[in-house]
Amino acid sequence: MNKLTQYSLLGLVLLALFYGISTMRGMQAQLNTVESAWAQVENQLQRRIDLIPNLVETVKGYAAHEKELFMGVAEARAAAGQMRIDIANATPEQMAAFTKMQGQLSSALARLLAVRESYPDLKANESFLKLQDELAGTENRLAVERKRFNDEVRIMNNKVTIFPSSIVASLLGYGKMGYFEVEEAAKALPKVSF
Q1: Quick check: 40 and 148 in contact, CB under 8 A?
Q2: How do the pLDDT tens digits run along the chain, 194 residues long?
Q3: Residue 53: cis peptide before it, omega within 30 degrees of 0
Q4: Architecture of domain 12-187
Q5: Is 131 exposed, middle or buried (0-12, 13-18, 19+ CB in 10 A)?
Q6: Are 178 and 96 within 8 A, CB to CB?
Q7: Backbone angles phi, psi at 125, to 5 degrees
């Protein structure tokens, strides 16, 4: 082999090595960004869970006979509060289960808020209105954080699935991540009947 061929081969090896290191660093940085975005989602989910008991107690004073509704909200809150995900290792199936759990909580909250229609005094109650506004603000923040998280997951999934970075991703064990999507049942309007 002549010197030019040796230098060309060495240059190609170094270029591939630098590309691999750069891609690996980029994927780890993106994973860190996804984890940070997930932490913000969890922060808003916890804020929502923390607001629920106050909202339930306020409504309870007006709707004492709605025990089944309150039990449903309490159970959904407890289940949602206990489910945790290691986002770095989350599969699409785990994200779907998490989404389902959060959808059940959202549905229970929607039914709880719909109770106010049957209790005119509750509509004007200052505590209820404040809590309702807090919860609505939290739901809006949660939607924003969910979108940010899903945007970061999309970027990571692109790195994992698009050539040539997909080669480095498969060598390092990175896989496609799941999105935090809204469950279909949560999109439906709650039905409350008395």
Answers
A1: yes
A2: 788 888 888 899 999 889 989 888 998 999 899 999 998 988 888 888 888 787 777 766 666 556 666 677 777 878 887 878 888 877 888 888 888 888 888 887 777 777 666 666 655 567 767 777 888 888 888 889 989 999 999 999 999 999 988 998 988 888 898 888 766 555 444 443 43
A3: no
A4: Up-down Bundle (1.20)
A5: buried
A6: yes
A7: -65, 125
As given in the structure block, the two tokens for residue 65 are: 């006979």
Taking the C-alpha atoms of residue 167 and residue 8, their distance in angstroms, rounded to an integer, is: 23
pLDDT recorded at residue 75: 79
Phi first, then psi: give them for residue 192, nearest 5 degrees: -120, 125
Return the number of other C-beta atoms located less than 10 Å from residue 9's C-beta. 11
Domain ranges, ordered by start, for the chain: 12-187
Q: What share of the chain is helix, strand, coil (3-state, %, to 5)?
A: 80, 0, 20
Distance CA 184, CA 99 (A): 10
What is the distance between the terminal CA atoms of the chain, rounded to a whole angstrom?
A: 88
Run of H or E residues at 18: helix 3-60
User: What pTM was computed for the model?
Assistant: 0.61
Structure tokens at 68: 């089944």
C-alpha–C-alpha distance, residues 33 and 191, integer Å: 39
